[in-house]
Amino acid sequence: MSRSVLVTGGSRGIGLAIATAFREAGDQVAVTYNTSEPPPGFLGVRCDITDQAQVDAAFETIQDQQGPVEVLVANAGITRDTLLLRMSDEDWDAVVDTNLTGSFRVARRAAKGMLRLRKGRIVFISSVVGLLGSPGQVNYAASKSGLIGMSRSIARELGSRGITANVVAPGFVETDMTAVLPEETQKQYLSQIPLGRFGLTEEVAHAVRWLASEEAGYITGAVIPVDGGIGMGN
User: Fold this and answer.
1) Confidence class of residue 183 from pLDDT cuts 50, 70 and 90?
2) Fewer beta carbons within 10 angstroms: which end of the chain, N or C?
3) Phi first, then psi: what are they for 77, rounded to 5°?
4) What is the CATH number of the domain that holds 9?
5) Does this model's pTM top 0.90?
6) CA triplet 86, 90, 92: central angle to 5 degrees?
């Protein structure tokens, strides 16, 4: 059956691959965008997830166009990388407010409709950095690690209503961000990945789509790594 799916930050990269995977499965897919233009073939909704009023308006638009959100993929995020002693309060606040608090805002809003439906799937997109840490990414790692605790708390709160909450933690994936890394840096990362290559956005998308499927109906509170083995159970 076609479901109403929302992917935040779905205009490019991993988010776009996730949105595409759901559309290919026959779902109706809305994507939020902020700075990038919305991709064709989706319900594009401009939304800054740091603004609760914009989040509420986005959900109202989606409900009017394709019904209440049954699957939420909280993917939108930013980076402000710099070393700890150089990191400003603004660098910290911007990343945590977008990546962690923004995900909380959309999950809270989605849960209202899911509780009425007595079913739903919430998937948070974290990162291997949230599990392993990374120099120069104290803010990003903290925000991505926080998604795990949030997901597991939601899983315990809402499980009795047929709502699951899980996390997918990608490793190094071929995106515009990794493409601009210096060749030496790419080699260094590759040397740490047992599979010896960067992941594909589609590989992350397939894991997310599976977690939202009936086949994964008894999985909640889980962290699924899509990282080529670099995390090894962390």
Assistant:
1) confident
2) N
3) -165, 165
4) 3.40.50.720
5) yes
6) 70
Residues 75 and 125: beta-carbon distance below 8 Å: yes
The Cβ-side half-sphere exposure at 206, using a 13 Å CA radius, reads 6
pLDDT digits (tens, 9 = 90+) for 195-222: 999 999 999 999 999 999 999 999 999 9
Annotated binding site for NADP(+): 9-12, 75, 140-144
| Amino acid letter for position 107 | A
Active-site option among 33, 140, 189, 218:
140
**Domain-embedded: residue 177:** yes
Residues within the annotated binding site? 9-12, 75, 140-144
Q: Is residue 233 part of a domain?
A: no
Residue 231: inside a domain: no
Between 185 and 144, where is the model more confident?
144
189 is catalytic: no
Determine whether 202 is exposed, middle or buried from the number of CB atoms within 10 Å of its CB (0-12, 13-18, 19+): middle
